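User: Look at the shape:
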Amino acid sequence: MTDERAEHDNANHWTENAPLRVDGVPIQATFAEAFDMKMTRLVLTAADRQWCHHAAAAMVGFGTSVIACGVEIAVERELSAEETPDGRPGVAILAFAVSGKELEKQIPRRAGQCVLTCPTTALYAGLEGDRNVYPNRVPLGKTLRYFGDGFQISKQVQHERADGHCETIRYWRVPVMDGEFVCQHDVGRTEAIGGGNFILLGRSMQAVSKACRAAIDAIKPMPGVITPFPGGATRSGSKVGSQYAALFASTNETFCPSLRKMTNSELPAAASAVLEVVLDGANFEQISDAIRAGINAACESVGEAGLVGVTAGNYGGKLGRHHFHLDKIMTERPS
């Protein structure tokens, strides 16, 4: 048997013999490998939903991957006026970085350029808990107040949390041309997980796009999780390292259909287009629930007529300590 034929047979083996299927789609018995990150949650409000969306879109822009963006950041969900500190329309935003130092650098920059500048907006902490719960802080008003050029005003307010405890919160009121920009002094940060993923192997680009969009729609309302890439998906799945010394990540050639005959391809013969969904989350359980919901929705949307299989990206356990085993996740009940 030629080497090319052996590779072809190996790539097809798991899809043909997979013991676990969802709506007929084979699920590979592999794991998604994820790593530790630092996270904060912000609540952005505005006088109306339109200004809120404009500010949020600007703040989370260029926030797909820590490879080059500094943070991975996206809207977690929309908030009603009843859910926000100032009784106005809002959104919750989750931001992840590889270190607390990076998070503390990136968030004030985005807040200053994208929220402070947007008419009627305000910015608050989104993690429920005081400084005893979240002693590590990310600066907001602490940094942005200086834009007030000495006219800014500090105010401390007693706030009763949902758990009944009271805490003193410091806000800054920065004068701007539509009135004032209200911003919390700082916000908590916490431990989190980045890089959970699943990979959809499509029979066509049309089919894998439909499956991917169904997966993202299922994940979108779930708390504590974001899919930071454009539309929630990425076509540029990456591996660690490169033949070029300046790059520490490069294309994952084993999942590129055009390189099937030039590499040790992991693609079954019928797979012609591949998309990956990458997830960041507050904890292991929330990411697991999102992976399950996403895979179920993807498979249900197109079935085996559209998907050849579902797999995940890992580096043999060398990248991160959090391993999301697809077969285990898909056979467990949601937490």
User: Anything to note?
Assistant: The CA atoms of residues 129 and 161 lie 8 Å apart. DSSP finds seven helices and 18 strands in the chain. Residues 1-7 have pLDDT under 50 and may be disordered. The radius of gyration is 22 Å.
